[in-house]
Amino acid sequence: MANSSVLVMVLIALLGTLAPLTEARAFFVFGDSLVDSGNNNYLVTSARADSPPYGIDYPTHRATGRFSNGLNIPDIISQKIKSESTLPYLSPQLTGKKLLVGANFASAGIGILNDTGVQFLNIIRIYTQLEYFQQYQQRLTALVGAQKARGIVNQALVLITLGGNDFVNNYYLVPNSARSRQFALPNYVRYLISEYQKILMRLYKLGARRVLVTGTGPMGCVPAERAMRSRNGECAAELQQASALFNPQLVQMLQGLNKKFHADVFIAANTHEMHMDFITDPQAFGTLPSIYVTIY
Ligand SMILES: *[C@@H]1O[C@H](CO)[C@@H](O)[C@H](O)[C@H]1NC(C)=O
């Protein structure tokens, strides 16, 4: 008893001396509404989450621009790396020391393709997000110097979430959409994967070295899609088929990139399976939020 409490005290003392030395790593977020933490609040767009019921389970119970009833995936990752949530890149508060936390460049409505989400008007397409990342690095360099800035970016954790909108808000947006007339589904998926690869190579070029890449969720199970496309409320088959084609090819493409770069830079996150777990066995995860809101 006495020994173990001494051990605990020694550990606490050690942690006390170590804690100030370990700065949380920076975190950068790219992608669509699944990871947008409020950039679209600053834009003239119809893709926004700044009014109720968004945010009802958020700590402040206010809509923040997150497309969620509560925290979103980036918030939870920030918690896990013991960091505060990254600010939206367009937030005027993202200055000075806050830059060291990282930044969230995501914008609801966008996709892998430049023509995805055109109906939402003014959104930050992925190549613009990457340009903003470059701009961010210039600002970081002004703050801490070039060498330290490079180190922060190289050691950062990066999350990128793309692809859902290229189906829901492009290929399947309207019957006989331009993209669905241009491509059969398997060819469209191949095209998306090849365009996504270019985006990830650009991200690598900009200094990202540890990148979580999520696949698409079970898009056919999105409430709006079930309402529009299924007879008895079941998950819509065609969109389920789309993610079944997309996700394994994404994993393969990431493996190819890691081989090319001789490092495990890109890590596939199987959001489809995680999501299906919630749907098929909700009790296993405790109390569900009172409502489930998301648009892509
Ligand atoms: C999308 O836009 C970016 C930047 O404007 C451009 O570099 C890229 O080639 C475009 N992609 C396609 C497939 O047209």
TrEMBL record:
The lineage of its organism: Eukaryota, Viridiplantae, Streptophyta, Embryophyta, Tracheophyta. InterPro entries: GDSL, GDSL_Est/Lipase, SGNH_hydro_sf, SGNH_plant_lipase-like. One of its GO terms (biological process) is lipid catabolic process. PANTHER family: GDSL ESTERASE_LIPASE LTL1, GDSL LIPASE/ACYLHYDROLASE FAMILY PROTEIN (AFU_ORTHOLOGUE AFUA_4G14700). Residues 1-24 form the signal peptide. It comes from the Eukaryota. Pfam families: Lipase_GDSL (PF00657). This is GDSL esterase/lipase. Belongs to the 'GDSL' lipolytic enzyme family. Keywords: Hydrolase, Lipid degradation, Lipid metabolism, Signal. GO terms for molecular function: hydrolase activity, acting on ester bonds. Coiled coil: none annotated. It comes from Vitis rotundifolia (Muscadine grape).
